[in-house]
Design a protein that fits this description.
The protein is mainly alpha-helical. The chain is 63% helix and 4% strand. It contains three helices and two strands, in the order αβαβα. Strands 1-2 form a two-stranded antiparallel sheet. The longest helix has 38 residues.
Length: 112
């Protein structure tokens, strides 16, 4: 049971790291003419995750296009950064709690 949970959390955190890289690239290209925002369909990628697989990068639709052909929104990317950080903190805490539970079980087993 533990390996399944930790593997799922590890995959989740890997996906968050991939999204973080895309958001960072979007912010780096905030003023690059013609640059298009890149992202992940996070829920789809999480549900269809395969070990070692690479998530599909998409270009979100419905974003406002600037006159230079760039559609990166500072507000959107800032929100995604905050959301990603929150999700990563939650996943880290869950993983930490899982490991703490295992450690406690091992320590209690030594005393028996």
């Amino acid at each position: 049971m533990l390996p399944a949970i930790t593997a799922r959390l590890e995959g989740y955190m890997d996906l968050l790291a991939d999204r973080q890289k895309l958001v960072a690239a979007n912010l780096a290209n905030l003023d690059t003419p013609g640059y298009r925002t890149k992202d992940l369909d996070f829920q789809f990628e999480f549900l269809s995750q395969t070990p070692g697989g690479t998530p599909n990068v998409i270009e979100p639709t419905g974003l406002t296009m600037k006159n230079d052909g760039n559609n990166v929104s500072l507000d959107r990317e800032s929100r995604l950064l905050a959301e990603n950080a929150l999700r990563f903190n939650v996943a880290t805490n869950l993983l930490r709690n899982e490991l703490r539970t295992v450690r406690k079980a091992i320590e209690e087993g030594k005393g028996a």
